[in-house]
Amino acid sequence: MLDVIGAESLDALVAVPEAVALRGPVSVAPALAESEIAAAFERFAARTPGSTYTSFLGAGAYRHYTPPIVGALAMRGEFLTAYTPYQAEVSQGYLQAIYEWQTYIALLTGLDVANASVYDGATALAEGAIMAVNATGRKALLVSAAVHPNYRRVLRTYAEGLDLDVDEIRYAPDGTTDFANIEARLADQRYAAVIVQSPNFFGAVDAPAADVGSAMRATGTLVIGVVAEAMSLAALTPPGEWGADIAVGEAQSFGVAIAYGGPHVGFIATTASHLRRIPGRLVGRTVDKHGNPAYTLTLQAREQHIRREKATSNICTNQAHCALCATIYLAAMGATGLRDCAGHNLARTRELQARVYAVPGVAARFAAPVFNEFVVAVPGRAADVLARLRGSHILGGVDLGAFYPELADCILMTATELTTSAEIDALGIALAESIEHAATRV
Amino acid sequence: MQQLAFDTPLIFDLGQRGRANKYLPSAPPPDEFLPADMLRADLPLPDNTELDVNRHFTRLSQKTFAIDLGFYPLGSCTMKYNPRINDAMANLPALRNLHPFAPDELAQGALAIMWELERSLASLFGMAAFSLNPAAGAHAELTALLIAKAYFKKIGAAATRRTVIVPDTAHGTNPASAAMVGYRVVSLKSDSRGRVSVDEIKAAIGPDTAVCMMTNPNTLGLFEDHIKEIADAVHAAGGLMYYDGANANALMGNARPGDMGFDLMHLNLHKTFSIPHGGGGAGAGPVGVAEHLVPFLPTPVVRCNESAGAGGWEPSEGKTFGLDFDRPDAIGSMRSFWSNFAHMVRALAYVYANGFAGLTMVSKLAVLNANYIRASINDIIDTPYDENCRHEFVASAQALKRETGVRALDIGKALLDRGYHAPTVYFPLLVPECLMIEPTETESKETLDAFIADFRAIIATARIAPEAIMEAPVNTVVGRIDETRAARHPDLRWHPPTAAAAG
């Protein structure tokens, strides 16, 4: 091969000028045979007992039952090792699957169109907010304090780049967004969008009432509905029906592994009027030169590789493989399976609420109706209670004090269809012991 | 390549009510738990038997080209083989099922994986530290420019440092990312050698320069041999140097962006570190920074309690780790959770499979394979910058088009018929009728020889029967697509039949 090239040696071929030659020792993980790699990762796994604990964690990443058919199909090499379907003639299968994903998301959110997916729920929110800024020409956003704190942090990070102001609406005593003075706050028409999450970070169903929605629209402010738990879409009124112009969210619940936070899959859906502001890839159905139905990436004039600095976003990838998992999951579960799943989430959560509220000293923090998570107030610091629960191999939930200093005595607890009565009972017992233990130490 | 032309109606046209699979026990309806005004009236999704679902997606997979089926000479995309050990490790239940809010003390193995990878990348590319936060290459560019913006704000220069310099060979994401942090883009022309000229860059930089975004080797596959002088000039003007890591497969182990003077960089782990592209994502785009930019990295950062890690990778056994959110100068966070962790597992497995010597050989063989193809076809097609290239090279079909009417696009489509993915075409923009070819190191000489023979046959056919090439592809499940119709009449979803039509 070197002869064909006319090169003296491999080293000559890759030589760089002396001024930029590699300097200093390099230390990377050592070379291992494959069997040794497997053993090394088994040791990493053994140092990661968290996934074996009884868990009531949710807060944007949910444990749901995934039928094995999802992995069996998604891990086919044709899907796993395909490139982005720019060459449509040899990518019809993947393109059709993404078209089906777009349809599922549009149907679930009650909106007209959805894109081919974005990185995750938080980036979907940031991209949706930029859509609203571009649509209205306004440079400020108003976000509910009951939107996932990580999502709000990402929104603020993106806003710093674009010099946008981000203001917050406080939450009401019942755990929903306090829309009491919303008309006055929107009167000066400064905000591109109001951002509301439902179910919100506290688990509460938080879709604004019809009159609140009308008040927002009267000021020309768009409404962005955030969905961090996509399973709720199987039961709750979808964003498109409660008045959101843009729905953004996270579809990890649809058959995508939790995997310590990623990759997950974000979605953006909107009304037909905002179609050309939607960022990222879109798959369209058209015909080939023989007139046969065919799929292709379309409306690429919005995208960075054509428009460069004038693009709707810099986003290039979508989360195609995670979106594929979700599409297969939705196809396999069907409406009947999803409804059953949502029903179990509602039922298990109420069983969990009843059990923990029966523990002396534990109380509901908010009164608003919830989907599959809720906030409990405990005596003392939530962090201490959770640490003691770990002694019983239980991850009792998320310490809200980490995000809301005023809720340092509160735990966000989640139950799904996989939560068993035995687990709920074990938590109840451990929680009672934990609180008794704390009381006797005082 | 002949694909089986199965009919694949939409999943929505297949299903019927009453064909549900029994994945879960029956549940009470939602209206037992919530008032009706909070609930949706209907859920218009089909029920399908598992067999129908299985056959549907299996058939769709058969209409999808992939690395497992054939060769991708796809410039700038580094479509190397994806070893299955990586996926097996990412699917270990302890890692796959770990919740991001699991306390650090119960996630030590996962944190150790992130730390070992981060330390390896930092040492391999000569940076002080990496953030594993960003989800993809473009996301990483945005992250890096936000870091630059925060840095200039910290030193009181945010108001003046407003421009980003981008060569014409840059990826389209570079200017788009710059626009997302409010930077003005100054475009820079390449010289006759296909490089950024030192004179040109000196004329472009000034007190307003925030960042110069470059890749090396550049998208022509050429090493920017004056990179040190360019970096020195940008630094002298007070600007920062950014390395777009899309082409890192060309120099990994043989040279380091840090040694060239880059202050910021990203890697596309889905390119260089053998993570499957999955049909367009998920990717992963760690961002590396020099020492003075470490405080601005997004949170969380993986902290080792027993080592500063300044010397690169160390064994993680016996050490303890935590996620550090308490970093006052951090730009914030770029995503919902900490990283595309499953990809961190895959990337570290790849580092383990190669070690330093192996990773160095990866880039050497990538360069060898690219030059072998270049030297085997440059007698029949123009290669505008005909010198030894790095991991990729560009050819131009301009002369061929003039003589025969056959364009770069047509050559790409003719390759589809012969069982290859098309090369990247019409990029970079400065080469007319551009074909950009990157074979990667994982392809054998036999595969390269077969590709060369097919490529030569296509060019020979183009000269005697150009219409045959312009008709391509004919062996695929559909012919060329009516893109204009797709854009003019967007059909982006299926619609349920109206009540009347459904009867």
Structural description of this entry:
- Chain A has 442 residues and is α/β, with parallel strands linked by helices.
- Chain A has two domains: 52-65 and 334-441, Aspartate Aminotransferase, domain 1, CATH 3.90.1150; 68-329, Aspartate Aminotransferase, domain 2 (3-Layer(aba) Sandwich), CATH 3.40.640.10.
- Chain A contains 15 helices and 15 strands.
- Chain A is globular and about 85 Å long.
- The model of chain A has no long low-confidence stretch (mean pLDDT 96).
- Chain B is α/β, with parallel strands linked by helices.
- In chain B, 37% of the residues lie in helices and 9% in strands.
- Chain B has helices at 11-14, 50-62, 84-90, 93-96, 108-125, 137-154, 173-180, 198-204, 227-236, 257-260, 269-272, 341-377, 398-404, 408-417, 445-464, 466-471, 483-488, 499-502, and strands spanning 129-131, 163-167, 184-188, 209-214, 240-243, 264-266, 287-289, 301-304, 321-324, 393-396, 424-425, 434-437.
- The longest helix of chain B is centred in the C-terminal third of the chain and has 37 residues, at 341-377.
- Chains A and B meet through helix 1, helix 2, helix 3, helix 4 and helix 5 of A and helix 2, helix 3, helix 4, helix 5 and helix 6 of B.
Rg from Cα of chain B: 25 Å
* Structure classification of chain B: alpha/beta
Which residue ranges of chain B are poorly predicted, with pLDDT under 50 across at least 5 consecutive positions?
none
**Which strands sit side by side, in order, in the main sheet of chain B?**
1-7-6-5-4-2-3
Q: Spans of chain A of 5+ residues with little confidence (pLDDT < 50)?
A: none
Beta-strand fraction estimate of chain B: 5-15%
Question: What is the helix tally of chain A?
Answer: 15
Largest sheet of chain B, described in full?
A: 7 strands, mixed
CATH class of the domain at 361-487 in chain B: Alpha Beta
The number of E-state strands of chain B comes to: 12
Order of helices and strands of chain A: HHHEHHHEHEHEHEHEHEEEEHHEEHEEEH
Reported for the largest beta sheet of chain A, the result is: 7 strands, mixed
Overall pLDDT metric of chain B: 95
CATH architecture annotation of the domain at 361-487 in chain B: Alpha-Beta Complex
